[in-house]
């Protein structure tokens, strides 16, 4: 069996596999339809595999064609990333790192990390995208981001997780609320108040931990609103729509008419962790992880 294939053959195949139409694929590739047909037939001959079933009005992928399309799509994305890194090296930028993060990581951890990393890698480009925990895991598994900052206790096989910040929870109240740091005893004092919480879809495990705080306090909370943004929580608290519980780090970065009471006497804590894919070959990733560990 002789594989006399070039990168262009793979791109030709993917164009036909996606369009399922030789003329449309040829137009997309800016080549002639007969020329494209010859290239695909040559590819099938070299591989000794039938990739398409050809009919008068339509083209259908064979099972082998479906498999090859899925695998090539995944691996050519990795190849594009390699070429992108090479181009950045040529331009003196030395590479690019894509971050995913939950909002609280941007209050202190990520800014400190970027400052520290820039001291030794002044020309690195960063992509920063706020997303929920599950979205980060999906993006890490498909290597659409290089590193994630999550509030999870465990991650799927193939990913590494390293805790970087363990912190207390804080109760959030309007500044003029009759309960304050001087007279607060426990959450049971507020069992008849409505609460505004992060949406469970943003992080089911985090939501479960917060609900356990209420269970240990002897009541089920009245939940008036769910949201995915801390700013929305604070605006609702500020306007007396309810109270909330958030990680301590979310006290920073917001200037709103609310007060925070740190919950030091409960067993629950929340941990911010960095997560990355063990198969990610971005040459900057190990250096970034080492920088994060050094910062701890």
Secondary structure blueprint with pairings:
Blueprint: H1 7-19, H2 22-29, H3 33-47, E1 52-54, E2 59-61, H4 63-90, E3 96-101, H5 109-120, E4 125-130, H6 133-141, E5 147-150, E6 159-167, E7 169-174, E8 194-198, H7 204-216, E9 222-227, H8 230-238, E10 244-247, E11 258-263, E12 270-277, H9 285-295
Parallel strand pairs: 3-4, 3-5, 8-9
Antiparallel strand pairs: 1-2, 5-12, 6-12, 7-10, 7-11
InterPro entries: LysR_HTH_N (IPR000847), LysR_subst-bd (IPR005119), WH-like_DNA-bd_sf (IPR036388), WH_DNA-bd_sf (IPR036390)
Organism: Tenacibaculum tangerinum
Keywords: DNA-binding, Transcription, Transcription regulation
Description:
The chain has 296 residues and is an alpha/beta fold. 40% of the residues lie in helices and 22% in strands. It has helices spanning 7-19, 22-29, 33-47, 63-90, 109-120, 133-141, 204-216, 230-238, 285-295, and strands at 52-54, 59-61, 96-101, 125-130, 147-150, 159-167, 169-174, 194-198, 222-227, 244-247, 258-263, 270-277. The strands form four sheets. The chain has a five-stranded mixed β-sheet with strand order 4-3-5-12-6, with helices on both faces. Strands 10-7-11 form a three-stranded antiparallel β-sheet. It has a two-stranded antiparallel ribbon with strand order 1-2. The longest helix has 28 residues, at 63-90. It starts with 6 loop residues before the first helix and ends with a helix. This is LysR family transcriptional regulator. InterPro entries: LysR_HTH_N, LysR_subst-bd, WH-like_DNA-bd_sf, WH_DNA-bd_sf. Belongs to the LysR transcriptional regulatory family. Residues 5-62 form the HTH lysR-type domain.
